[in-house]
């Protein structure tokens, strides 16, 4: 009585395992990228994505789709305006066009660019000033089952993009996918993404903006005005400082205008200047500078100088663990 | 025994159906005008998608939309404006924006608006930039009774 049932169980198990293997081999091959280690500011750089198709298709035995490719770059590069994506493959060469903001990615309900940002994040970068931008090929392709066993289905996507005017060290993000799929979290076959080794932009404006290596102190968002809410964070895990293992750390901060006039100063150590615990050894403080320094409507804060101190104000940590203050300049572009 | 189980099951279905019917009869198929009047308090604040409201003291912040088409607000937190004035909805039935007219000024301030239902209560969701246009803030308000 029991035997046929047991046998049936094995049959189901076999089908189940078979299906899993079948599904696992579907879709796209792993994505690799070629990104130069350096690029000169304001010049156009070229990046390559390499992947390939592995069509394992059930009935009706063909799969017609468009190539989807995405990049994650700093917002300041204005890639939406100036990036150009093209592809080469044995099934033909062509261009990719940015997916309109009005088009919704079905799983997240967001547009494709926002959906990709939510799905893939900013990778190894520690500060978020990035945008994902997703493109789709103008042509479509038809694959037949196991076609990759008979033909070369690898493809390259070439990205040409201006790298902006600022000095920075940054890791870029890349994605390839299939237009008839979506960004469902459980799918690992039809969406492949990766982040590049850091690329340094040199001979540009400003101090090197390091997105990749942990910083003793950071300010988020990277671009802001004094009417934004900014987050100052101190990472005690980066190097050993005088403030190691202290529960109470305070900010000591000055605000200056465009002509370096002191507009305001917070020297008190109280709830207003005390940093709050965050992830790991990080502590942070959110401030709205205009309110924090009680600014008059016509006054404008151009930059901040600050230290982190202990409860008495005697132990003080500045830029690179020196007695020089950390600096932050408000700018939007 | 079996009979009573079936009867019980039938009753359950009946109750379920009745409750459905009740819901349907309550439905209004003509879209009503959205009523945003009331005193609204901030329950969530995100910056570029990151929740920052829990780390800040938002308790003193409110915006009050009155019946007579005026509004006032607290001045304790950054907001798209700090002056009281008049407000209108971009479309009373399908609003996607609130237009704020601060008192004594000629300019108007449009604010992106959503009116989702969260845990059975309407929430007022306003999004805008405060300083740099690349930063987007979303304030989520709950109506105070």
How would you characterize the overall build of this protein?
Chain A: Keywords: Membrane, Transmembrane, Transmembrane helix. Chain A: It holds the Pfam family DUF4961. Chain A: It comes from Sphingobacterium hungaricum. The complex is a heterodimer of chains A (about 325) and B (about 140). Chain A has about 325 residues and is mostly beta strands. Chain A has two domains: about 25-205, ntegrin, alpha v. Chain A, domain 3 (Immunoglobulin-like); about 215-330, Sandwich (Immunoglobulin-like). Chain A contains four helices and 23 strands. Chain A has helices spanning about 1-25, 80, 110-120, 290; strands spanning about 25-30, 30-35, 40, 45-55, 60-75, 85-90, 95-100, 130-145, 155-160, 165-170, 175-180, 190-195, 200, 205-210, 215-220, 230-235, 250-255, 260-265, 275, 280-285, 305-310, 315, 325-330. In chain A, strands 1, 2, 4, 5, 6, 7, 8, 9, 11 and 12 form a ten-stranded antiparallel beta sheet that branches. In chain A, a hairpin with a 5-residue loop joins strand 17 and strand 18 (about 260-265). Chain A starts with a helix and ends with a strand. In chain A, about 30% of the residues are buried. Chain B has about 140 residues and is of the alpha+beta class. Chain B has a single domain, classed as Lipocalin (Beta Barrel). Chain B is about 15% helix and about 40% strand. Chain B is built from one helix and ten strands; from the N terminus they run αββββββββββ. Chain B has one helix at about 1-25, and strands at about 40-45, 50, 60-65, 70-75, 85-90, 95-100, 110-115, 115-120, 120-130, 135-145. Chain B has an eight-stranded antiparallel barrel. In chain B, strand 6 and strand 7 (about 110-115) form a beta hairpin. Chain B is elongated, with a radius of gyration of 21 Å. The mean pLDDT of chain B is about 80. The interface between A and B is medium-sized, with 21 and 17 residues.
């Amino acid at each position: 009585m029991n035997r046929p049932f047991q046998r049936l169980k094995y049959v189901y198990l076999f089908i189940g395992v078979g299906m899993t293997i079948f599904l696992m081999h579907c879709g796209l091959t792993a994505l690799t990228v070629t990104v130069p280690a350096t690029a000169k500011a304001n010049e156009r750089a070229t990046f390559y994505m390499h992947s390939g198709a592995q069509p394992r298709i059930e009935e009706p035995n063909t799969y017609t789709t468009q190539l989807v490719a995405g990049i994650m770059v700093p917002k300041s590069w204005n890639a939406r305006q100036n990036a150009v994506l093209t592809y080469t493959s044995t099934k033909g060469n062509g261009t990719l066009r940015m997916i309109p903001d009005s088009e919704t990615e079905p799983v997240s309900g967001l547009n494709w660019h926002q959906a990709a940002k939510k799905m893939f994040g900013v990778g190894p970068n520690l500060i978020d000033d990035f945008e994902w931008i997703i493109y789709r090929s103008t042509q479509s392709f038809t694959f037949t089952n196991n076609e990759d066993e008979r033909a070369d289905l690898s493809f390259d996507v070439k990205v040409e993009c201006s790298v902006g005017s600022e000095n920075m060290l940054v890791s870029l993000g890349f994605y390839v996918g299939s237009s008839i799929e979506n960004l469902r979290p459980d799918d690992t076959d039809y969406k492949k993404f990766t982040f590049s080794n850091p690329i340094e932009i040199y001979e540009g404006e400003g101090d090197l903006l390091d997105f990749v290596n942990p910083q003793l102190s950071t300010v988020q968002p990277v671009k802001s005005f004094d009417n934004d809410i900014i987050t100052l964070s101190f990472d005690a895990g980066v190097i050993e400082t005088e403030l190691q293992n202290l529960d109470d750390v305070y900010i000591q901060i000055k605000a200056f205008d465009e002509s370096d006039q002191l507009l305001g100063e917070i020297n008190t150590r109280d709830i207003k200047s005390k940093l709050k615990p965050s992830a790991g050894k990080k502590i942070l403080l959110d401030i709205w500078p205009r309110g924090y320094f009680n600014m008059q409507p016509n006054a404008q804060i151009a930059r901040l100088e600050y230290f982190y101190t202990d409860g008495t104000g005697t132990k003080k940590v500045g830029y690179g663990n020196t007695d020089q203050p950390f600096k932050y300049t408000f700018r939007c572009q | 025994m079996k009979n009573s189980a079936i009867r019980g099951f039938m009753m359950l279905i009946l109750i379920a159906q009745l409750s459905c019917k009740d819901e349907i009869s309550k439905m209004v198929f003509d879209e009503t005008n959205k009523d945003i009047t009331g005193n609204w308090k901030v329950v969530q604040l995100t910056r570029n998608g990151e929740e920052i409201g829990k780390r800040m003291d938002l308790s003193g912040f409110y915006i009050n939309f009155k019946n007579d088409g005026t509004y006032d607000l607290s001045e304790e937190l950054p907001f798209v404006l700090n002056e009281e004035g008049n407000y209108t909805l971009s479309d009373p039935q399908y609003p996607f924006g609130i237009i704020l007219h601060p008192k004594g000024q000629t300019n108007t301030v449009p604010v992106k608006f959503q009116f989702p239902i969260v845990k059975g209560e309407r929430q007022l969701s306003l999004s805008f930039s405060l300083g740099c246009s690349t930063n987007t803030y979303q304030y989520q308000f709950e109506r105070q009774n």
